[in-house]
Design goal:
374 residues, Rossmann fold, 7-stranded parallel β-sheet, 6-stranded parallel β-sheet, 18% strand, alpha/beta
């Protein structure tokens, strides 16, 4: 390859909806070095991410049969032809096993994946002979792996990926825009939130792994403690929405807990929050919603997952998973101590700028690409 030629990179993402991996990919491409790299993306037909990637001026190729499927071997040949036409120097896969095999068949020089969570295969697959078989597969189909935190790097190593192939690159997010005080007043009124309210938000898919039940129990505890000016807002959608709304009704929380549902642009709602809560009990690593809140000084209060601990250290609070009283204690402390709130708000914004911008993430990923091509 001539040094003056752009390096061609193709990403494969199989998600039909826009989840964390899709948002992360868009954030990366927004800050990518388009002078040095030429990007393209393969997505499922009808993927919600298509217009967002195309709006960046990056070509999208759609592939039938891969939607929400890491393993779709019957479509490997079809995917191989798509990759051959794009002729990338690097194929970057996001939870697409078939994509890796198709990349090998298409003779792509370098194949990379990103591990977005810390889950591992079932224990039986981590023992002889399955572990050895999986390790051989990784050796055949992978030149490098990006782990989004230490926990996901450990999970990759357990699966048999060679440790010297794993690079930890923390997620990054663009800074949210800040809105005017008049816009905040109008938005609070839209949701029935008083102008002087202390607002606690949760920005997450309405799925069991995000544990909104603990969030609602925390809200109930705060109200019972007499924190009369505290209001709560739930932003997101998912399979648990009806269950969450039923809990709100049964606990008689409707006047204080607002369900916004899915919104394309979270910036306005994040702007009216003082605190951004993450109650996750799952396998996520570097939570994007926490980073986005920190970019405008919203203080994180999060469960004790490895990534959450790293994010909230020195600028927020870490709570025991499922222990609603722990979350409520920290909300109450910030509600009563506004100077502490201001101090942590400033620290959150500074930490975001130092460690979690999308510009930093993009540069680290592209430097990793270059290292693989040496």
């Amino acid at each position: 390859m001539q040094s003056s030629a752009k390096i061609k990179v193709t990403h494969i993402l199989t998600d039909s909806n826009i989840g964390g991996a899709g948002r992360l990919l868009r954030y990366f491409l927004e800050k990518a070095d388009r002078e040095r790299f030429e990007y393209s993306v393969i997505l499922p037909e009808e993927a919600e991410l298509i217009p967002e990637i195309e709006a960046l001026g990056i070509p999208v190729v759609t592939a039938y049969g891969i939607a929400d499927r890491s393993n779709a071997p019957e479509f490997q040949g079809f995917l191989t032809e798509k990759i051959k036409k794009l002729s990338p120097d690097i194929l970057h896969t996001h939870s697409s096993r078939t994509g890796r095999f198709a990349g090998v068949a298409a003779k792509v020089p370098r194949i990379v994946l990103t591990k977005h969570c810390s889950d591992s295969p079932p224990e039986r697959l981590m023992k002889f002979p399955y572990k050895q078989i999986i390790a051989r597969e990784w050796k055949k189909t992978l030149h490098g792996a990006i782990a989004t935190d230490y926990a996901s790097s450990v999970a990759l190593a357990k699966e048999g990926v060679a440790k010297d192939k794993i690079k930890i690159i923390y997620n990054g997010a663009p800074a949210l825009r800040e809105i005017s005080e008049s816009e905040k007043t109008e938005l609070r009124a839209q949701y029935g939130i008083p102008d002087n309210a202390f607002v606690v938000g949760i920005f997450a898919r309405l799925e069991p792994v995000k544990d909104h039940t603990t969030f609602l129990e925390m809200a109930e505890a705060c109200i019972e403690r007499g924190l009369d000016d505290v209001y709560f807002i739930i932003v997101g959608d998912g399979t648990q929405r009806e269950n969450i709304e039923d809990q709100i009704e049964s606990k008689n929380l409707g006047g204080r807990v607002k369900v916004a549902g899915f919104v394309n642009d979270i910036a306005p709602l994040m702007n009216i929050c003082h605190v951004n809560v993450n109650c996750s009990v799952g396998t996520e690593t570097t939570n994007l919603a926490l980073l986005e809140g920190m970019s405008i000084g919203v203080v994180p209060i999060a469960s004790d997952l490895e990534g959450n601990i790293r994010i909230a250290e020195d600028c927020g609070y870490v709570c025991l998973q499922k222990e609603f009283w722990d979350f409520a204690d920290n909300v109450e402390e910030l509600y009563r101590d506004r100077e502490k709130l201001r101090t942590l708000s400033y620290a959150a914004k500074e930490k975001y700028l130092a460690k979690y911008t999308s510009e930093r993430m993009a540069r680290e990923v592209e430097e990793y690409y270059l290292s693989l091509l040496k």
